[in-house]
Amino acid sequence: MYISIAMDGPVGAGKSTVADGVAKALGILHLDTGAMYRAFAWYALQQGVPLDDEQAVSALTQKAMPEVAYVDGAQRTSIAGQDVTGLIRTPEVSMAASSVSRYAAVRKAMVASQQELAKKQDVLLDGRDIGTVVLPDAWLKIYLTAAPEARAQRRYDELIRKGQETTFEAVLADVIARDEQDMNREVDPLRVADDAQVVDSTDMNQQQVIDNILLRVKMRKGEKLEKKGTYLPLYRYGLPVVAFLMKLLFPVTFHDLENAQQDAPCIMISNHLSMLDPVYLAMANKRYHVRFLGKKELIKNPILKWFFDKLGMIAVDRHNTDMAAIRSCMKVLKDGNVLGVFPEGTRHKEGVMQELESGIALIALRSKATLVPVYLTDKPRLFRRVHAYCGQCIPVSYLASQGVNKQTCDQLLENITQRYAELVAKHQKTK
Q1: 147-197 pLDDT, tens per residue?
Q2: The pLDDT of residue 87
């Protein structure tokens, strides 16, 4: 059985470059399907065919179709006997590709060609409808995305490096227009496949995205993840024992566990239902020692103080602005570790992330650390199963670039609330 990986996402998400890096690391073939559509669009432009004439554009599929060859491990795309690899990355061709891809005859011809290639070898295909149309039964589906501003900046930098004159505003407008066109076309619109894993690369560089996807491949194969960062002895050796007992007495089912394996520094956040919640978060993170922020009342007892100190807990005064605790949190993140925070500040029986403390926004914006949300469905009770939903990461860097102020803090808190609303809705669907 051949391994097939489907990678979809909007324009400017970096799919082609990332897919190439992932495929090389895995030693499998990478087929850039977007280049095939671009080549066909370039050909239509060269032939002077009106892009709004569906019949004329569709007729071109009988005249010429893109061909793919691999030279020194790199894909070369040609059409009508001409290598067009270096000619198809302009804004004009980009918009034209979005236009021709709307037509059923064009997509049918492309899909047939792509499916035939995937039957013969281990392959990674990237495009805009791979997981939903081309390879609906793919072994692994990735939806790679990023904030429009981040995607526009990357595309702008790429065009400038190639010597093309443009402005960031023009590229951003093009990105937004492409998103609108791709997501609302009648034939095979861009959407996230139901079983796709969403990777938001807003806060990541290219290598980090590649590593993130390779980690997801490892998890899909059932391979053990490598421990990273520094572990305190009590945490390293005590957690497996506690996790074993938790599985017996307070069982938990993790959903989308791959989302919780974000590279440090990052901040794991969760709604707060019980004293056992930190254990569930620690169990969810397979790679790092999670250092939790906890109320200072926990360390009044000398024995408990020793215990929590050995776990690396940061004590915080919940009733006052505790700058010492904030500095300790910043140091944890600066040292490349994972911080665990319950943004509600205290345990709640009802509602999810409705009354958030501003401290989480302050720490996240100052550190620019990505937020990793986990939603716990129920308070643990003996032998009653709890479900833990690991959500898509919440990028912080773009907001942080606008400064640390009331507006950005409020926006980040709103983003957290929105993400948890999505996780609650996801749980409701499974009931």
Answers
A1: 999 999 988 998 899 888 899 999 999 999 989 988 988 777 889 999 999
A2: 96
On whether both 106 and 243 belong to a single domain, the answer is no
Determine contact, residues 125/6, Cβ cutoff 8 Å: yes
Give the separation between CA 316 and CA 54, rounded to whole angstroms.
64
Measured over the CA atoms of residue 407, residue 409, residue 410 and residue 414, the dihedral's sign is positive
Are residues 257 and 358 part of one domain?
A: yes
Domain boundary among 220, 245, 269: 220
Asked whether the predicted pLDDT for residue 430 surpasses 90, the reply is: no
Q: Are residues 379 and 394 in the same domain?
A: yes
Residue 156 identity? Y
Confidence of residue 116 (pLDDT cuts 50, 70, 90): confident
Please say whether the beta carbons of 266 and 287 come within 8 A: no
**Per this entry, what is the length of the chain?**
431
Alpha helical stretches, state H, 201-322: 206-221, 233-249, 277-284, 302-310
CATH number at residue 382: 3.40.1130.10
Q: β-strand 67-71 against 74-79: which pairing, if any?
A: antiparallel
**Residues 67 and 196 grouped into a single domain:** yes
Residue 97 class from Cβ within 10 Å (0-12 exposed, 13-18 middle, 19+ buried)?
Answer: buried
Mean pLDDT of 33-41: 92
Domains held by the chain: number: 2
pLDDT the model gives residue 185:
80
Do 19 and 142 lie in one domain? The reply is: yes
DSSP 3-state of 291: strand
By the 8 A CB rule, do 357 and 343 touch? yes
Which H helix or E strand runs over 386? strand 386-390
- Both 132 and 272 in a single domain? no
Angle of helix 33-46 versus helix 104-118 axis, rounded to 10: 140
